[in-house]
Design a protein that fits this description.
Two copies of one chain form a homodimer. With about 425 residues, chain A is of the alpha/beta class. Chain A has helices at about 5, 15-20, 50-65, 70, 80-90, 105-115, 130-145, 160, 185-195, 215, 285-295, 305-325, 350-360, 385-400, 405-410; strands at about 30, 35, 45, 95-100, 125, 150-155, 165-170, 195-200, 220-225, 240, 330, 345, 365, 365-370, 370-375.
């Protein structure tokens, strides 16, 4: 379909693959033949071993042990064991991360605990382009409390907007539309200098590059299990509580499994120590098992190498798109590498249709309203040759106008 | 080990099995050979078809379709489709039940919406023997709101305790320790007569006997996916919102998937219609698939027959225990059938050790502190002969004193 010889193949993609220290990781994933998957920032692919682990959890553990599984297979501690594995990727000490519930619910827990630490201050500060559920959850919390105010400013103005009335700064490290990566250490320091509590959403960070929560000093963080961690659709999310808050962070969703002694069935709530106090209900064992097995792909991986490859993949994509595509209709909205997460986004007035055409031709990215096409670069399974080919196909679709067909304009329920 | 001839077998268990209209359902479950499972009220066994469905969801849907699974496999509507299937078992209209999150989190949502309907009243009323997480979650909600009071009275005094300051009556239909089954219609009517909002916890009801939420007029209900519904360890829970509240119940956990247009990414929250507004984060597809497949076992089942068999199983157990066991140390704490759910409980000063001995001999029930032994009767897979044999073994363990060994006194982490 495309005359690759005429336009020229990407100059050094194959050489980059040959020199890639993470190249062996690709074999740890099931990747449909012929598909180039640039949407691991939305739903990671299926890692090998997950199907087998889930099958064993269902048939052997649940089917065979029944209720005895809680003790026999260590189900009760699974949220904290998986939390410790995620903790290694985000610079969190053992015992400071627990896994369960959705990202939204975990954000609510973190925010509720954070505002309780600054009762005299009114404002939860965030950026007006934050992922909507974060803003909605903050709204809901303020509504419940009957006080507090969600103040939104443009992302670039967050640091200056922190003041003496700021109770909590709530920020997503990587912007879901543009891929802009905030300076975690600097924003946290600014928040602390003003006496505010810091809550990070690491949805687009965890597993994509090294995060150092401990060094940042942030009080709370949440993140997602199904993006770069590849835990499966709707995988459990996680919550980080800074270790020195282990005995004081208030769990607003004070469920029995956050109790210090769940099986004593005491009439009054008494929180456990550490992040475990943020547990609420019975842990979702099937999906926790999937996530636990998925994390095997990160075992022994140096996250600095992951970052290095992520940047190189994205740079190759950007340069190839610039070289091959008609750029008139396409606007790169992601910042330069130093201030970028692991995705590259372009605005295009017909971005939805262009993305559908690209998907139809075997390159999966996604679309975020109103006009953003996103391409995610997950270094564990993507090759440089994949990225170069994706850029080529995008350029070809744009040049040919093949995206402008009725089928590609019809909006699906989920975008 | 037991001289059955001497004591006499249960008089008519085999005959009851032969006449059981639900007898064919047992074949729909994987039940470990030789085990008598009387703990389906804590964790239901693995239904056939679940392993296959989960495997397909993991490998074919997630592994093969990746992000396209949200549209291709209807993942996004799964919480509501599964909700409608549960709705049939609890007398709830289509669209009034959604599935996701834990029972505790759903209770929080229901309670928060309920108290918002009575802002001028201070009290959440419950019984002092309610399952602790329900009480803890109410405590947490009041703490967040900075107002409201949790008033606890003995279960028998709930109806009289409802007064003009009662905002919400929160009750678990079946008491987790005693198995006492409240009169849902009467308590709800009493709550409404006093102007209070009713929230039912159906954890030990759903799938065990018919519930008629519509007839009761209750505003909210929550329940559990892993007990009598057999959805697997930590299965998603459900939440019912009375249909006429579809446009007004306030979602305090206002997440993006409860938004009227999640993929419009609007900056302000705008709830969906119906129970769907109580959705929060991304639905847990693996565990929802397991629960969906598990519900096949209820397909076409008349819940009135389930109740009839549940009562007959429990009555047989009680009469056999009374006939065979040394009753001096054992106190039946469950009420007569009309006021009982689908479990039978006994107090025994050494209940923990007795239960461990019984489990070691192949009959699984469970223990609830401080001294209650629970036996659950799930009519879809239990036989009358199982129940008679369980009573015989319990009697034998008590008579012989075989429970009084050090190994049986050592407390496990999870009881």
């Amino acid at each position: 379909m495309t005359d690759q010889l005429h336009r020229g193949a990407a100059p050094d993609a194959a050489r980059l693959d040959a020199a890639d220290p993470l190249a062996d990781r690709r074999a740890l994933f099931h990747l449909p033949e012929g598909l180039i998957y640039l949407d691991g920032n939305s739903l990671g692919p299926l890692p090998k071993g997950v199907a087998e682990r889930v099958a064993a959890t269902v048939s052997t553990e649940w089917g065979g042990s029944l209720i005895r599984g809680w003790n026999a297979h260590g189900w009760m501690d699974l949220p904290d064991r998986v939390g410790d594995r995620i903790g290694r990727l985000i610079g969190a000490a053992p015992g400071s991360v627990t896994v369960g519930d959705s990202t939204s619910v975990n954000l609510f827990k973190a925010l509720a605990a954070a505002v309780a630490m600054r009762p005299e201050r009114a404002v939860i500060l965030s950026d007006d382009g934050n992922f909507p559920t974060d803003l909605y959850m903050a709204e809901g919390l303020n509504g419940l409390r009957g006080r507090g105010r969600l103040k939104l400013v443009p992302r670039a103005e967050i640091a200056e907007a922190i003041d003496a009335d700021t109770a909590v700064v709530m920020l997503t490290e990587v912007d879901y539309r543009t891929g802009h990566k905030a300076d975690m250490a600097a924003v946290t320091a600014k928040a602390h200098a003003a006496g505010a509590v810091m809550v990070w959403d690491l949805a687009h960070s965890t597993g994509a590059f090294p995060v150092d929560l401990t060094a940042s000093g942030a009080e709370f963080a949440v993140g997602c299990g199904y993006k770069y961690l590849n835990g499966g659709p709707g995988a459990p999310a996680f919550l980080y509580v800074r270790p020195d808050l282990a005995g004081e962070a208030v769990p607003a969703l004070s469920g029995w499994l956050g109790h210090a002694a769940p099986f004593a069935f005491e009439p009054a709530y008494r929180p456990a120590e550490g992040a475990a106090r943020m547990r609420v209900g019975t842990p979702p064992i099937l999906s926790l098992s999937a996530l636990d097995a998925a994390l095997d792909a990160f075992e022994g991986v140096d996250m600095a190498l992951v970052r290095e490859k992520s940047v190189a993949l994205a740079e190759l994509f950007i340069s190839e798109v610039a070289r091959l595509a008609p750029m008139g209709s396409l606007t790169l909205v992601s910042p330069p590498a130093a201030a970028r997460g692991s995705q590259v986004s372009y605005r295009h007035a017909q971005g939805y249709a262009v993305m559908q055409a690209l998907i139809a031709e075997g390159v999966i990215g996604d679309f975020r309203a109103p006009d953003v096409m996103r391409f995610g670069f997950a270094p564990l399974y993507l090759r440089f040759t994949d990225v170069a080919e994706a850029a080529l196909r995008l350029a070809d679709i744009l040049s040919s106008g093949r995206w402008d067909r009725p089928a590609f304009h019809a909006r699906a329920k989920v975008t």
